[in-house]
């Protein structure tokens, strides 16, 4: 081979090597480009995913914010509705209190007039009519007072005073109050137990049991009513059991609603207001006492009040009781702004052989009595015309005559403020409508004590 051919072969080999090298370089460059493209594609995908997630997060955040604002508005609406309901409840209570006062005034006059009429000579038929009118007036009074009590309980105005209560005292009161009523209907009223003390409010506890026993007697035609206090485990249970008509299961919750009488009929024709059990439930709730009911149609019912026992209250000295005396010749100063009530009271006092000096306002009573005639006792209405108060008249009479003349303050206002003022003035408080027998006994007691 010539030198020229040898050189040509070398050039071809070198060129081949260069081509191979260039192919390797090209393959490496292509691989790098592909990797770069793949990386750029992944970054783009991530970028797209991030944008999508950000949009979803923003959307969810906006939804959550909207829900939070809606919930906040709902809470504000609920708060406003609650405040409005509380205002309406307080307004209802004030209205009922004012209406009750205005309704009890003429009712008081009517009851006093009927009582004065009952003491006059009349035939049997007239006495029957008088009795019917008295029962009707009593029903109206019970309805007004019960509605007012329900309103006060709902508004939280009645605050229980929980203290040790001797169960025997409550049961003895129940037996004394309802024994004659049960006997007239031919029923047995049995009272058992009571040798224990419970933590309760005496007034509310008596009201609960009075309503339960009254209902039991009303809806029992034959047999009897049992009131029993028993120790059951860690608690004291007071049962009111009757042999009456029983309560259907589907009505056992409804009977505690206002004005619900169900299908039961009173066996003696008495008007059932449908409020007694409503008072029972509200009073038990206010006291924190559990109330349960078991009843079978045709067999009777058992209402159970569950109470916590407590240690006995330290004994207090028993006050000596002075037997009441006659009102004959007693000098009674009477001030009452309601004309009908004033006239009815004056007739009652004269019927009791007392000397009544009656006036509708302070100045009229001053002119009537002068400064030398001293009354033995004063009966004064709390609220007089023109914003005057009967306590001012009592204070004036005491200052003029130099001693604490016994005084009875009458009012249809059941507020604690009135009661506190009357007690502070060392006077007796009697709520309207007045019960003549109760008023007569109180006056006789005050006169005998004086």
From TrEMBL:
Cellular component annotations (GO), alphabetically ordered: plasma membrane
Annotated Response regulatory domain residues: 331-447
Domain called Histidine kinase: residue spans: 98-311
Residue stretches spanning the membrane: none
PROSITE patterns: HIS_KIN, RESPONSE_REGULATORY
Catalytic activity: ATP + protein L-histidine = ADP + protein N-phospho-L-histidine
Recorded GO MF terms: histidine phosphotransfer kinase activity; phosphorelay sensor kinase activity
Regions annotated as coiled coil: 19-91
EC number: 2.7.13.3
Modified residues (4-aspartylphosphate): 381
Protein name: histidine kinase
Source organism per UniProt: Methylobacterium tarhaniae
